[in-house]
Amino acid sequence: MLMAIISLISCSKPERVVVESYSEDKPKVVEFQIEEDGKKITVGQELYYENGKLQSKGEFDVSGERNGRWEYYFNNGQLWSVGEYKNGVMEGKKEVYWPSGQMRYSGFFKNNEKSGLWVFYNEDGSILREVATPAASSDTE
Questions:
Q1: CB–CB of 37/12 below 8 Å?
Q2: Between the CA of residue 81 and those of 67, 72, 74, 103, 139, what are the distances in Å?
Q3: In tens digits, what is the pLDDT along the chain, a chain of 141 residues?
Q4: 12 by DSSP, 3-state: which?
Q5: pTM of the model
């Protein structure tokens, strides 16, 4: 997705810019920027824990809204959560994991609202419960 945004805006590769650091060699906030009409546009971002592990990463549309896949991690580097955005609005699949890496719950968003069936899991991977959102009867997911 990031490359699609870049190709629409410019043919240049985004510049990696350390915006904030814990120390000289430990970034805290990294942005990926392109230049358009003499203006810097942030098209991606990574946040880091003080231990150097990735905390989150994702992309922005040209207006600065979250767009595409956003990932969040526990401070040990294990994936915690994945969600999809479209122009700043949660839209699409959402997955959240236990620290062990086992799925904790998953479902879908439509226009920032939970949609369809949400499935919650025990830490051993067995299904704890399934919850249908009020709009689930009209959803096709």
A1: no
A2: 16, 5, 9, 9, 23
A3: 544 544 444 457 899 999 999 999 999 999 999 998 899 999 999 999 999 999 999 999 988 999 999 999 999 999 999 999 999 999 999 999 999 999 999 999 999 999 999 999 999 999 999 999 876 444 444
A4: coil
A5: 0.82
